């Protein structure tokens, strides 16, 4: 029996394609097909950790695989960020603070990952302004900034360390407001608060969750917030732009990131899922209790936020030669 030309061509095409079928089927296998690790660069109980654990259960249900929160603590979150950048298992994600996704390498060229090249934005989870605070005896509003200008370099401000958003935000404020307080770094925000109450510091930028409790207790005076307009997290305080400080729009935030090597289709699926979860009323309430205004953006939305932060904070870092210690 002889084959016709058409039959021979069909047989040959099938013979060539047959070895490729297992690879093609594997490439189209459902994702994820194993547990997903959600890296956090800070210890249990920290803000990024609480956010990651709040997301883990609904994310697990949506993806159909266990989601394991994995704390890789150290170097201000950069150890976890580097581990994410190097992950090649296709099942590793991370909840990060803004510094690790934006200015880490600008602050420390020795950092072994490039956030703009090695990390892929997934979704902006939550944002919050910083709150400019002063001792309870300080004046408020425009009078506060007039006093700050008259004090020259006699005033001090505190932050939880060189290169933190609290430090860079104050340097940005100094440039915008024409004031000149001197920086005093502390190990963390609790020490900054104690120094404000003791009168060793005249101003600082604190996260809302910490600032509001101390303002309500009468231990600190709230001056304004660093967001472009009033924040729903701190509705009673004016934005600094309302007090005449133009060009200062700064927020702290956390977001979900993936390795740049993760396929775009997987990133899109996670982004859609996280965005939907974050916008659910129950999750909004959980994030608000942690001091965050829920967002739930697309990858492009987070990428735009990263670019804006790199532009504004990068300019301060370069102009003043700031390096993380």
From TrEMBL:
This is Receptor. Gene3D superfamilies: Bordetella uptake gene, domain 1, Periplasmic binding protein-like II. PANTHER family: BLR1237 PROTEIN (PTHR42928:SF5), TRICARBOXYLATE-BINDING PROTEIN (PTHR42928). The keyword Signal applies. SUPFAM superfamilies: Periplasmic binding protein-like II. Belongs to the UPF0065 (bug) family. Pfam families: TctC (PF03401). The keyword Transmembrane helix does not apply.
